[in-house]
Amino acid sequence: MEHWLLILWIVLAVLFAVIEAATAQVVTLWFAVGAVGAIVAYVLNASELVQLSVFVAVSLLTLLVARPYLKRFTKTKVQPTNLDMCIGQTAMVTEEINNTLSTGQVKIRGTVWTARSQDDTVIPADALVTVIAIEGVKLIVKPNT
Description:
The protein is α+β, with helices and mostly antiparallel strands. It has helices at 4-23, 29-43, 48-74, and strands at 90-98, 103-108, 111-117, 128-135, 138-143.
């Protein structure tokens, strides 16, 4: 088996490329490119140590140079929603908020939401509260002082 190292580099390049295609997270792309560099080193009759060094060096260089550019293009922008605008706003308690009993609703901007108290205090109906966070479909509130 004279060309076992070439076969190894080809298998690694294909394996890393397949993993990259399956994950689409730009994780193993660098190693696939490094394996191609090692294949080039093999074709140029480089020693096993040189091939391994080329693999490591090309993988690291590709990672360090290309990753910042790819992150810039793949970065997703957080799009604020109308719900985000509720944070910091005042709401009216329509049903007593009691975290222990898992009860409580508030009305804000014409919509009724399930609500929980920030610090487990019971907040009576008709009280005014401030929305401080959103957890799932519940508003986390604190009493207005």
